[in-house]
């Protein structure tokens, strides 16, 4: 356990420090589907860390690849030099995407990937003589990280309110939860109608000023908001019609969460730019990446200004991250991770929906190996009910995640039926005996 001086020194991200530090939860190691605390107690991971360990914790092949890489090349500046793994990884990522994209740009996180994609959009329009296209459209309840770009287009006001003024000219597609969609399995209904909200914004603003629309195909951090059937397709149509670029933020949905390589494969909609992180390296070494359509790179490469893209990071394409990423792709292939995940999805859905009817359960949502249980909020105490479930579950050896009163689930994709049984038996038990 940390000493009280250590507790004082560590300013934790996001966490409500006072509450947490009165009863800290510490994990000391991890393997496969489990975390272990300092006493060696196993905690079943229902959230893949923070949505980022699809191939399971401390996968031996990924560990070995990183060990080898660190002994060979510790660091190489990406500005004037390359190293073999950076090129090889980019090529393999394009192949993994089914060649739907032409280039990969490396960052160190999801937030940086989002800001990078937004800068690519602006540079692209400018190179085409459309410098007035500077307006971004986000979506209510979306999360796009903590950089000033991603924070500005993110649709969670609580994440923005300490830090304004933010990027100018941002607007948001409405999120409308329809009552008939509650407890529906898979995709909810009425997507095309909801996506027509983009037409409202096109009417509202001069369309020639709109640079891009950015959405999470499935909004994760806001509590697993699924796009209703037809939603993303309609957005794509409207963007094409009006010269607007479409960005999918696949930081959560990339690398198999929906049992396909990316959510864009699941929905059959290809964006112009796609941001990724988390599962890209199986969470082992921090890394993000922007995938882009060849027209973006080509336009910038052909630009008379002669500058492709004046942007980059000290650690872009870090050798350890590339090694971890290459090993992750290899594990995906050799161990048939996506195939296995697809085989688990129906069992996952049935187990999740078996919680319907328990006290205070207001909605259940699922897709691929993602799921959410929305609880009724105790008046005046938002988030308290889900947090009570979270604390009890952790104490009883299961890690879940909460956003407000929504419990979000996103296990490592290597789970089997016995893990699903344990996870939902535990949640059933806890939800059946609410504290209040
Ligand atoms: N976009 C999405 C969709 C995310 O879920 C996250 C992180 N949860 C981010 C961006 C930011 O990623 P990072 O925390 O790696 O900066």
CATH architecture classification of the largest domain: 3-Layer(aba) Sandwich
Ligands (ions, cofactors included): 4'-deoxy-4'-aminopyridoxal-5'-phosphate
Low-pLDDT segments: none
The secondary-structure class comes to alpha/beta
Share of residues in strands: 5-15%
Q: What separation lies between the terminal Cα atoms?
A: 31 Å
Outline the biggest β-sheet.
7 strands, mixed
Tally of distinct domains: 2
Fraction of helical residues: 25-40%
Rounded to an integer in angstroms, the radius of gyration calculated over CA atoms is 22 Å
- Number of discrete helical segments: 17
CATH superfamily of the largest domain, by name, is Type I PLP-dependent aspartate aminotransferase-like (Major domain)
Query: Could you report the average pLDDT, rounded to the nearest whole number?
Result: 96
Spatial shape: globular
Give the beta-strand count.
15
Pfam family, one: Aminotran_3
InterPro entries: Aminotrans_3, PyrdxlP-dep_Trfase, PyrdxlP-dep_Trfase_major, PyrdxlP-dep_Trfase_small
GO molecular function: transaminase activity
Keywords: Aminotransferase, Pyridoxal phosphate, Transferase
């Amino acid at each position: 356990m940390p000493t009280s001086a250590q507790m004082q020194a560590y300013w934790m991200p996001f966490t409500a420090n006072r509450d947490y530090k009165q009863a800290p939860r510490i994990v000391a190691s991890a393997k496969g589907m489990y975390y272990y605390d300092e006493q060696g107690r196993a905690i079943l991971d229902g959230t893949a860390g923070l949505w980022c360990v699809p191939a399971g914790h401390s996968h031996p092949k990924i560990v070995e690849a990183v060990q080898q890489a660190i002994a060979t090349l510790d660091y190489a500046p990406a500005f004037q030099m390359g190293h073999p793994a950076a090129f090889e990884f980019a090529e393999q990522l394009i192949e993994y995407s089914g060649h739907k994209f032409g280039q990969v740009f490396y960052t160190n996180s999801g937030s940086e990937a989002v800001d990078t994609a937004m800068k690519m959009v602006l540079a692209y329009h400018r190179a085409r003589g459309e410098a007035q296209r500077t307006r971004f459209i986000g979506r209510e309840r979306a999360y796009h990280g903590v950089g000033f770009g991603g924070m500005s287009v993110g649709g969670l006001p609580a994440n923005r309110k300490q830090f304004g003024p933010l990027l100018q000219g941002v607007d948001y597609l409405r999120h409308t939860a329809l009552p008939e969609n509650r407890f529906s399995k898979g995709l909810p209904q009425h997507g095309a109608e909801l996506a027509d909200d983009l037409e409202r914004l096109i009417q509202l603003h001069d369309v020639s000023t709109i640079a891009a629309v950015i959405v999470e195909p499935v909004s994760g951090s806001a509590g697993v908001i699924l796009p209703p059937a037809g939603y993303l397709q309609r957005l794509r149509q409207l963007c094409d019609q009006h010269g607007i670029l479409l960005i999918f933020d696949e930081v959560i949905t990339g690398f198999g969460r929906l049992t396909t390589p990316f959510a864009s494969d699941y929905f059959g909609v290809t964006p112009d730019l796609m941001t990724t992180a988390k599962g890209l390296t199986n969470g082992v070494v921090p890394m993000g990446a922007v995938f882009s359509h060849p027209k973006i790179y080509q336009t910038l490469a052909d630009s008379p200004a002669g500058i492709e893209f004046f942007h980059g990071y000290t650690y872009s394409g870090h050798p350890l991250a590339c090694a971890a990423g290459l090993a992750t792709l290899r594990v995906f292939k050799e161990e048939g991770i996506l195939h296995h995940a697809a085989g688990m999805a129906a069992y996952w859905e049935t187990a999740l929906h078996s919680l319907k009817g328990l006290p205070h359960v207001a909605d259940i949502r699922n897709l691929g190996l993602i799921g959410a249980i929305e609880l009724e909020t105790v008046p005046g105490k938002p988030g308290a009910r889900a947090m009570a479930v979270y604390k009890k579950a952790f104490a009883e050896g299961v890690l879940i995640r909460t956003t407000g009163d929504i419990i979000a689930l996103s296990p490592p994709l290597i789970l089997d039926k016995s893990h699903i049984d344990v996870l939902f038996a535990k949640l059933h038990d806890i939800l059946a005996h609410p504290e209040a």
